[in-house]
Amino acid sequence: MKKINRSLFRLHSWLGLISGVFLILLGLSGSVLVFRTELDQLANRELLHVASAGSQKLQEPLMRCYEAITNRYPNLDGIAWLNPDAGPGDAYNFRIYFNDARLMTYDLALISFNPYNGAILREGPASQFTPSLIEWLFQFHFSFQLGMPGAALTAIFGLTMLLSLLTGAIVYKKMIWKVLTFQISIKRKNWRTISSDLHRIVGVWSLLFNAVIFFTGFWMNMFAFDGKTWEKELMAGKPNTLFSISADQMYRNALQAMPDLEPTYVYLPTQPERKFEVRGYEKGQWKLWGAGNSVRMDQQTGEVSQVNRLKDKPMGERMEATFHPLHVGNFGGVAVKVLYVIIGLTPGLLAITGFLLWWRGVGKNRNYFFSTLTT
Prior knowledge:
With 375 residues, this protein is an alpha+beta fold.
């Protein structure tokens, strides 16, 4: 048994060393992105706040924005309205999905409009800081700004970090109950004891949370292992096929089809095989279940083609719908978000303390080092 534990300990150590830098980068960026919307609004407060007193919005503002985007970008995979819950003084934010036929770039862009006069307030690809530092950080978090290979790499590190947690839980199994019952405290004798006790205590208390974060992060990036997705990335975007029905009218009709829908995302198709779609929560729904309710409409006829309610879906799909809220922490208000920020920093702390422990063991007898950590 000791031999197995030593092997697991070595595996745990090497997994931590290999993924340590990525743990720090993903943990820091993820903690910032918990307050993604709030930080973007704060950083661009003057830019994104539009005058609303005594003013009227453009007629059919959603359609006007759609036409402006498609005129500026003639070959798009699609457009998403990111804040259909925008208040009277808020700009309209849109994500642009394009394809430059290169694997090493992830093709997203951001553009914001003043809905009262149609002016473009900011515009640019998510690979640059100019439209939004938060949007750049969002793309970095799931792809390291390395396109499809980066998205696959992030998923792989999600698995390695999950495996590191599991092996650590086995190796330190005798410590788990002691930590949870506060039988272990941080000894401030020297940097070695501090790093050792921190690694144990932080690792145990954040074990379940980090396991959820790593698994859901891996799951959401599984698309990067689909060969067809890579093939599509190498194909340049096709010319836009515009819908003739007003986007504003389809949006209103979608809300009539599901009156209790609270929209969070509106997809505006630019290709004939796609559907106009409005997604969001049902009124009164716990947000942990995700924004999986939707209304889809034919972009040429404006007819409702599908109404999806999360509560009517199979249990497997309903459970999968919780993965995104569990990963980003948007289901429980400010208190939950603050908790996510704090615990989101623990992977980096574990990486640092783990490295210090490894460095400590380089010059020591391995068996002695192993025994001092696990007893």
